[in-house]
Write a structure and sequence with these properties.
The chain contains 10 helices and 11 strands. The protein has about 280 residues and is an alpha/beta fold.
């Protein structure tokens, strides 16, 4: 049974209503959780609230998140996995938030304008509803894939129209794909931030034990299931441009970037931002 979220205390540096609700699902890996939280605090200039959903971590992580005074906490007694935890966080956002940002707990933030970069991409067109720094391609889809869930900003009004993640069908991975297709079917689109605007580094899989990774192999795979995802939302699979028109791959790549990448860069990479 979920424990009630604790009250927010100073969730925004300015005291204003949050513009972005940042949802981080935690499960062990306390050194990465701590780094992620500290980076959010130090590098966020847009009014935000921080919502941490802990999936029954061991004592070091649980004690750390329980001691935070500037975050809303949801402390689960069992592991709801990533998708269930994200849904809990998204359902508890401040009603004034314009955007929800799903952020993995093993993310390192590289720039002080990391939120502004994503908001700029979101506001580049009125029907942009999902933004992120990376997308995962799937075959035979009209969308060239979907935004990776490790850093995924969602317009709050989109949640009201599309709903939340399908945690029963996709308890660990795959939910962003189904969500993106459901949004696309209702006229929403996604944008990928410009590759020069590298603002985070994903350390990847720091909370996964070998046993847990083995259990994940039993879950459905998005690439195999993607035609069914499209069909559930009234969309038809379609071949790639190169297959339809016999175009060279670089033309297809240009079309992909034209439709789904936000340009130009928010700020020049010459500031010296580098991956660790």
């Amino acid at each position: 049974m979920d424990k009630a979220p604790q009250p927010v205390a100073g969730a925004t540096a300015s005291g204003d209503a949050p513009r972005v609700s940042i949802v981080v699902v935690t499960y062990n890996a306390p050194e990465y959780v701590r780094k992620c939280v500290e980076d959010i605090r130090a590098r966020s200039r847009v009014p935000y609230e921080l919502i941490l959903v802990d999936n029954a971590s061991d004592a070091p992580t649980r004690d750390y998140v329980s001691g935070l005074q500037d975050a809303r906490l949801i402390l689960n007694d069992d592991n709801r996995l990533w998708c269930g935890g994200c849904n809990q966080g998204m359902r508890s956002i401040d009603p004034h938030s314009e955007y929800v940002l799903l952020l993995n707990s093993d993310i390192e933030i590289l720039r002080d304008d990391w939120l502004e970069i994503q908001i700029a991409a979101m506001e580049s067109a009125p029907k942009i509803g999902i933004v992120g720094p990376k997308h995962l391609r799937v075959p035979y889809g009209p969308m060239w894939g979907f935004v990776d869930g490790f850093c995924m900003m969602i317009r709050a009004s989109l949640l009201q129209e599309v709903g939340y993640f399908d945690e029963e069908r996709w308890p660990w991975w795959g939910a962003p794909a189904e969500f993106a297709v459901a949004a696309y079917a209702k006229g929403w689109r996604y944008r990928i931030t410009h590759p020069q605007d590298e603002f985070i580094f994903h350390h990847e899989d720091k909370s996964q034990t070998p046993e847990f990774k083995e259990s994940l192999k039993k879950l459905p795979r998005v690439r195999r299931e993607f035609p069914g995802i499209l069909a559930r939302h009234g969309l038809q699979p379609e071949p790639s441009l190169s297959e339809r028109w016999k175009l060279p791959p670089f033309i297809e790549k240009w079309e992909e970037r034209r439709r789904f990448y936000h340009a130009p860069p928010y700020r020049a990479q010459s500031e010296g931002v580098k991956r660790p």
